[in-house]
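Why show two proteins at once? Because comparison is the fastest way to build intuition. When a single record is shown, students tend to memorize it. When two are placed side by side, the eye starts asking what differs. So, the first record is below.
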Amino acid sequence: MPRSMSDLFEIFTLFPTFFYVMVFIMSLMIGSFLNVVIHRLPIMMERSWKLEFESYFSASEDAISTSSQPEGDQTKNHLQQSASTEAEAPYNLVVPGSTCPKCGHKIKPWENIPVLSWLFQKGKCTHCNTGISIRYPLVELSTGLLSLIVALHFGPSYACLAALVFTWSLIALTFIDADTMLLPDQITLPLLWLGLLFSLGNVFVDPATAIIGAAAGYLSLWSLFWAFKLLTGKEGMGYGDFKLLAALGAWVGWQHLPIVVILSSFVGAILGIIILSVRGKDKNIPIPFGPYLAIAGWLTLLYGDWIADQYWRYVLG
């Protein structure tokens, strides 16, 4: 039995095929969980915002109304509010269990096997034959394939483990932003702190490079945001984009931030043209920038040095 993570890495080095297969299968299961995160986290955020809004204004109204109510009515209203709060069904990443949105059929474990269940069920609910979106197996498969690329690139190492977490986080952020135009702090901020913590061990960059990268990433888009707003009176992007680029800066370092920005702009321009051509030529349709940052950040973490070398070879002739 391996006594440490280093011993485990040595075993995986001796049996690389086993390591790659294990990473792929594990990542398929992670992809299944990411589908839950992508769907539920925005709903959880909106419910939290609604509760905060209602509690704030209801507290203000209660402070005004209860002052003129008899003591017995005040107690009764308080008990009713408590009962209403307790009656709300819990909703998080674990509860309730997955069900068919059409008929409410509870998904059995054998109906939730990544990719395979969707194929065997021919993309339909086993109870009511309602179609299941192909995006679910695509998220699972893309998570497995991207994780396999990470494993092949870094091999059995701490860098591989860190890059896997980085990859899974960016996949969740990409689809959430594409669906809702939101980049949840619940993912971007932990990603930022993990990048800074990994820099203490020089996993990808040293601490100074990571700290400057995080600050430069945030301030660069923050400055661009305010310059655009002052010139046009419009907001060109959200604060979530600032936080995501700060997180990417903590992982790849300030030296590679220009690569992230250039790649994201390039990818965004191409995909933006495609999206506009499909949706129509309405330039007022908002397009999320987070997915492009995520794609560019992932490519930079793996191939940033190679991209920089190719650029300078081209420039220097």
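Second record. Ask yourself what differs from the first in the token line.
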Amino acid sequence: MMFAPTMSMPAAAESGALHAALWGLLAGSALVLGAAIGWFVRVPTRAIAAIMAFGSGVLISALSFELMDEAYRAGGFWACAGGFLGGAALFTLASWLLARRGAKHRKRSGEQQPSEAQHEGSGLAIALGALLDGIPESMVIGLSLLQGGAVSTVAVVAIFLSNLPEGLSSATGMKRANRSARYVLGVWVVIAALSSVASWVGYVAFGGVSPHVVSAVMAVAAGAILAMLVDTMIPEAFEEAHGLTGIITVAGFLTRFGLSKLG
């Protein structure tokens, strides 16, 4: 299902930016929902791991069939490949810097996350790390609106389904690191709001630019998302789910693939 504005060009551009922001906020709200569940409901760690594996499969499918394919068609192989590798490199460098400040286990639901007493400044690093994980996904919404003139509900659903376990797992780990409910929920509310801003920026900043540039930016987002999956989500999934991780990830992949074809 697609939603497209039908009005004069300036008004359409304003409406498109607003649509991007609202859809980004909707997708980002899954982080808050997941964090609330992680804080108020005692969810077994194996269940959290299974949800993380499912979310990973959803994102792998999205970046394979939507981001990379669209990036290739818009800008060709070299723009796509350069952006993909560049996005992965940028994410890896930023994640490494944050890990040195206490954010290495920001997606873990166990007791791996350090408390502020154990590692001063780790709270801020974890918050920045969570933001780093979410920005590429959010920008994709704005970019997809530019590419097709409308936002696909499939893309929003895919990001929503992957954000839910991210918030759930990370908030559970924050709680076990003795961080307050105000801190945990506040972090995810702010990140959800910034996700909306990122979607808006993705639409506004790249409107009217060369298809090769849009291609490269979409590929950068795809590379960052894949690096994030391998760096944060999949390790958490395998830590608890072990041998079931593969089949659950495949189920997530197939779910998103099916949504795209049925949609």
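One difference worth noting in the second protein: The radius of gyration is 18 Å.
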